[in-house]
Amino acid sequence: VLFILNGLERLNLDFRLAGTELCCDPNEPVPPSTIVVNLIRKYLLPEASIIVTTRPSAVRRVPGKYVGRYAEICGFSDTNLQKLYFQMRLSQPGCSGEGRRDRSSAEQENLVEMLSRNLERHNQITTACFLPSYCWLVCTMLHFLYFTRAVPPSQTLTGIYTSFLRLNFSGEVLDSTDPSNISMMKYVAKTVGKLAYEGVMSRKTCFSEEDLQQCFEVEMKTESELNLLEVFRSDVFRFFLSPCVQPGKEHTFVFTIPAMQEYLAALYVVLGEKKTLAQRVGKELSEIFGKVSEDVAVVVNIVSKVLPWRFLPVLFNLLKIFPRYFSRLSGKDKDAIAHTMAEELFKEEDYYNDDVLDQINSSILGVEGPMPHPDETPDDEVFELFPIFMGGILSRRNRAILEQLGCSIKNLAAFEIAKAMKKTVIRKSRKGLPPSELMDYLFFLHEFQNERFTAEAIRSLRTVNLSSVKMTPLKCSVLASVMSTTSHEVEELNLTSCHLDATSLRTLFPVLLRCKSLHLQLNSLSSDACQEIRDLLLHDKCVVSNLRLGNNPLGEEGAQFLAEALAGNRSLTSLSLLHTALGDRGAELIAQHLPQNQHLQELNLGYNALTDTAALRVVEVAKKHEKLDKVHLYLNDISEDGKRALHSLRMDRDGVRALVFLTAGTDVSDYWSHILNVVQRNLPFWDRDRVRQHLALLLQDLESSRRQTANPWRKAKFLRVESEVKKMLAKQQEGT
Predict the structure, then answer these.
(1) Which residues form the NACHT domain (predicted)?
(2) In whole angstroms, what is the distance from residue 96 CA to residue 113 CA?
(3) What is the residue extent of each domain of the chain?
């Protein structure tokens, strides 16, 4: 028989004969501690094998004469074991709670390979993954980042870290022999949390021994507190802090997982541990006055009746005011916490960093490219997770888990913090945030898990600009979840260059329905995505009036879906299909369905390799359209004959205006600046040689028209436009 006695430090065993009687009969009823002691003494069931696990500080509680062998379990000493663990963990279906079967094995293998490469670089994450529990955390984070597709997401980032701490410290008391009986997590929040917070405030991640001494206040400790500190340094310190592996910083400590610093700093603040000396003294005095007030009141009332000291009750009542005054003063703590959260969330120096989810991804998988030189000055440390964790810790579920860990946050405190924070957060969000910072703000609202607060915050957002943010499935789920708390219409949603696909559009479908202006340029959307867009435009609740799909390879098949959408849509007034590889066939499909549309006013088919036939066919249909009055056809393969036919169009006679060239007969087109602005914005994304050819043709047309006019004012206008085109050509040739 093998007995495994796990966590022996929780039992205060007494191996003295006077303290614990001898017992060799398994049938004899004795207390559990007596059974355990006699098993270890080998007096009870001497043939049995026994394995005892305990924290380092409690090893000597079992006398050495009863121990045959000591072993310290450190972690994964073999990186191949780490890799095997990651392969097994990341290939488990449903271990992230999603239960999806369509995860590609190629994506899983790619994640394992990138993670392995980062581990081989001997970064700080290599030290962290020495501990199997941190390997669990890394895998859970990767599942969260890459395989979350549910709306709302079934997990939060804060929830993962809180669950991780429960996994390791649930029910753990720092020292069972100490009368304070403080939970391990509470002690960590008070000490390591203080170190983490001061590091965040001073933008520091490396800590010297002096920093540790100062933060743990070693000089001010009593003997009992020093014993607790010794137990902490023996048992827990290395779990949270490890020696820095960065060259030149060998004698400093860093948090084993960088984000843990921000989590513990957030916990330190939300628990109200960040107090001034006056606040601490005031709290202690308030508690003392509160405890003795009732007894003293009785004595004073009796004495005042016997002796002529009528002023005593008055004085004492004045003293009783102090606890009430302090309780009112302590309410200001909630305002301070809310202010800290809002200030950190909207720090302007962080406005142009990557969003926090990309930062976490980089910290786990590394950044592709050459390693920085050790002598290079590192960039400033970024602590954008700190306010997000503060919001996440205040959510109901995380507060319930922290309660189990001995870190109590009352419902009233959470309510007061949210109330104090609301005005500041909403006011600052209205000023307009850069895309990456706006994504962080949306993620903060998701982590906060307060639907009423989120609804008020989102209702103030009329324009949502997330251009150039890499919208992973998780970010799409977060955006859809947060926006679903209200039903208000969004004036503009900008998702330009966000790596969207058909799945992303499906996730965001309820949000897209409510957007008046929708920007989906530069997303490599194909015909599959067009199918989703067709369903969107044909939905009876769709309010999209301006849709931009430029610079996506939609092709003829995509044009078919969009043509069907145009036929049945009742909200769209402007549609941009600039540079979408339609070709003549795609334009013909659009033209076939245009007569069934009654609302479109502007259509952009520029840079789609259209020839005369397709361009004139679209214009002929546009002439008969009730409201369509502007068609963009520039940068297409239109001949001189086609150009003359399009030049002959008159708005007053034909009811449509075609934007084809920079000239209009012997004058400059009214839309020359618009056309050049479109070209200017898209130069980095278009084929350089082909654009250069089109610009050369535009320049020739300008020069030819200038020679045909004798009007000096018109010549000056031509020269101005020619100079703009020449500048663009020069930039193209220089490759800038």
Answers:
(1) 1-86
(2) 20
(3) 2-66, 131-296+333-367+383-458, 489-661, 669-735
Per DSSP, the residues of 499-512 read ---HHHHHHHHHHH
Using one digit for the tens of pLDDT, what is the confidence trace for 203-250?
999 999 989 988 887 666 788 888 899 999 999 998 999 888 877 787
**567 CB-contact burial (10 Å; exposed 0-12 / middle 13-18 / buried 19+):** middle
Amino acid letter at 409? Answer: I
Residue 664 host element (H or E):
strand 663-664
Q: Structure tokens of 150?
A: 């549910």
Please spell the DSSP secondary structure of 219-281, one letter per residue: GG--HHHHHHHHHHHHHTHHHHEEE--STT-TT-EEESSHHHHHHHHHHHHHTT----HHHHH
Pairing between β-strand 241-243 and β-strand 2-5 as defined by DSSP bridges: unpaired
Give the model confidence (pLDDT) of 603-630 as tens digits. Answer: 999 999 999 999 999 988 988 888 888 8
Handedness of CA 1, 43, 65, 173 (dihedral sign): positive
* Model pLDDT for residues 90-129, shown as the tens digit of each residue: 877 654 444 444 546 777 888 888 888 887 776 778 778 8
In 3D space, the residue among 351, 388, 364 whose CA is nearest the CA of residue 482 turns out to be 388
Nearest Cα residue to 614 out of 643, 638, 598, 645 = 638
pLDDT for residue 289 is more than 50: no
